[in-house]
Amino acid sequence: MKRLTTFRSQFDFQSIRWKDMIRWFPGHMHKGMKDLEESLLRIDGIVELHDARIPHSGRNPELYKRLVGGHKPHVLILNKSDLADPNYLNKSIEYIQIEQPNTQVIHTNLMSIELKELTNIFGRLLQQIVESPRYTRSSTLEYNIVVCGIPNVGKSTFINKLRNLFVNKRSCEQVGANPGVTRTMSEKVKISNRPKVFVRDTPGILEPRLKSANESFRLLLTNSIPIQQRELSDIIADYCLFLLNKYDKQRLYMKYCELDRPTDDILTVLTAIAKLKHCTQVYGNKRGYDLTGAALHFIHEISKGTFGQITFDQDILDEMEKEKSNDTNLFRTNTGRIKKSI
Ligand SMILES: Nc1nc2c(ncn2[C@@H]2O[C@H](COP(=O)(O)OP(=O)(O)OP(=O)(O)O)[C@@H](O)[C@H]2O)c(=O)[nH]1
């Protein structure tokens, strides 16, 4: 008879100082919000990109309060929807609109976006912009849009797509798999002639807001912040395994690791990967499995979707569903939890 596997219901972060662990914000990121604030008077609309797998984690509510404030047209694009669980895409939109009812939220997969969809997104933003009061800018005939978001969410890809599709210019923005590639705010680029619309060709990078160990680890898994300490890769890999089990996404990692049953033991997974991928290392005069290398491999695979489409913030969205009921209003507390008002 097959043994039933029991899984952890909570992850033990082993008292690691998660704030120190991922204290990785280069100067250009601290500058992001400041630059955006300074350019506020000159801009007509904000496009914010975020990763569809983490509609809650890493989002910076300051952006909405300080920059948008319900006055500036604001479109939030939950990108990389191809990597998120399709069952949670609409729930993510609903989650964000509880706190930000004036924000248009859409999800995209910029890797395979069609002209029609992009035109539609652009059209919706433009309509909002044209219909909004422009105060001191009302005599200006051109419109300025700023694109912002945390690292590696697809800001440069989005701008490139707009530029290529609307102005038919060749792509020249650097697009990178490593977070924080784009460094500075630079000149504006025209993306439409009638009306004249400009977008910053180098987007504003926002520092992700880290409110808990859970959120920080989820940002590591989406590659929005890099893993700086290799020696912590095993605990991050263990967190991946914890989430895969918690969200019932066991089939693909079992197949990948050639396991006949799911497991809650990270050593079993890492040893299987080390064997299959020939991750070895010399220890003294002996060669042994390189479990740190295997852990980094496992983390990389989960972040690129090898173990399926996963919404890392699924538990938060499930909680929202539980709290929801027709005759009560939902609101979000300071810690980001959804509650019912009575
Ligand atoms: N799977 C998937 N990958 C995407 C998508 N959009 C962008 N990417 C990839 O994500 C990585 C980061 O994209 P960028 O456009 O450089 O992201 P960015 O936000 O400008 O990054 P920074 O410069 O670090 O702030 C690249 O490898 C893109 O090819 C998407 O919708 N789905």
TrEMBL record:
<dbReference type="Pfam" id="PF01926">
    <property type="entry name" value="MMR_HSR1"/>
</dbReference>
<feature type="binding site">
    <location>
        <begin position="152"/>
        <end position="157"/>
    </location>
    <ligand>
        <name>GTP</name>
    </ligand>
</feature>
<feature type="domain" description="G">
    <location>
        <begin position="145"/>
        <end position="245"/>
    </location>
</feature>
<feature type="binding site">
    <location>
        <position position="204"/>
    </location>
    <ligand>
        <name>GTP</name>
    </ligand>
</feature>
<dbReference type="GO" id="GO:0003924">
    <property type="term" value="F:GTPase activity"/>
</dbReference>
<keyword id="KW-0342">GTP-binding</keyword>
<dbReference type="InterPro" id="IPR016478">
    <property type="entry name" value="GTPase_MTG1"/>
</dbReference>
<dbReference type="InterPro" id="IPR023179">
    <property type="entry name" value="GTP-bd_ortho_bundle_sf"/>
</dbReference>
<dbReference type="InterPro" id="IPR006073">
    <property type="entry name" value="GTP-bd"/>
</dbReference>
<dbReference type="GO" id="GO:0005525">
    <property type="term" value="F:GTP binding"/>
</dbReference>
<comment type="function">
    <text>Plays a role in the regulation of the mitochondrial ribosome assembly and of translational activity. Displays mitochondrial GTPase activity.</text>
</comment>
<dbReference type="GO" id="GO:0005739">
    <property type="term" value="C:mitochondrion"/>
</dbReference>
<dbReference type="InterPro" id="IPR027417">
    <property type="entry name" value="P-loop_NTPase"/>
</dbReference>
<keyword id="KW-0547">Nucleotide-binding</keyword>
<dbReference type="GO" id="GO:0032543">
    <property type="term" value="P:mitochondrial translation"/>
</dbReference>
<feature type="binding site">
    <location>
        <begin position="79"/>
        <end position="82"/>
    </location>
    <ligand>
        <name>GTP</name>
    </ligand>
</feature>
<protein>
    <recommendedName>
        <fullName>G domain-containing protein</fullName>
    </recommendedName>
</protein>
